[in-house]
């Protein structure tokens, strides 16, 4: 039984049952074998592009899956296109669009659809793998990256900063008197405060900056290609935005944070950089909290 294709305006919805019983064309089977060699989404789409090029002439490919923030463009976007919404057993797998200078003939569309049969299940497996990887590095409470993600990211960025002689800084901060918040109001409201702080910090930092929940009420922001003065200014914006947003636990009791800032020194390692930021954070708390201290 051929896959059901529903025409919706200019977009075709392409769906097959979870366990398809239909006979797939030989080229689609061969394509599936090729695509099963990778679980990396960019490489998967590049392989599909290369294999489809051998069958149908086209200029470019665009794959979009907003649920996982995946947006892949290959080749050139020309004047004509055909677009497919991809599904397996009603599970959305995103949308794929093919471009070229002239319209696709009906027999070419049939060939493309046959080839998409070979893409769907490798694509589904790849997306499941990507989600598993993402879950492993994301703190489920705050949505920030977790300690496991920090360990690899910090060492990698330190190595790159030394190799390319570019600045690298980090901001370490935690919530002032957070134990008192949990003791007085319970962990449910404490969790709400953690989420509010993380959301406020994430909205304040730049797209290139990385926010991590280091542990408990402590967070870290990793700033690539940023020196000490720039890191200090960003830390002050984070502090001020949280103070002004006032994630209030109850009337009259707002939340503030203390922040320590450090910038990578010549020949310094990741551990030393972190320890200097941690010492600056300790000084900020010792000097009265709700302030930024930079390591010298």
Automatic annotation (TrEMBL):
This is diguanylate cyclase. SUPFAM superfamilies: Nucleotide cyclase. It comes from Candidatus Sedimenticola endophacoides. PANTHER family: DIGUANYLATE CYCLASE DGCM-RELATED (PTHR45138:SF9), REGULATORY COMPONENTS OF SENSORY TRANSDUCTION SYSTEM (PTHR45138). One of its GO terms (molecular function) is diguanylate cyclase activity. Its EC number is 2.7.7.65. Gene3D superfamilies: 3.30.70.270. Its cofactor is Mg(2+). One of its GO terms (cellular component) is plasma membrane.
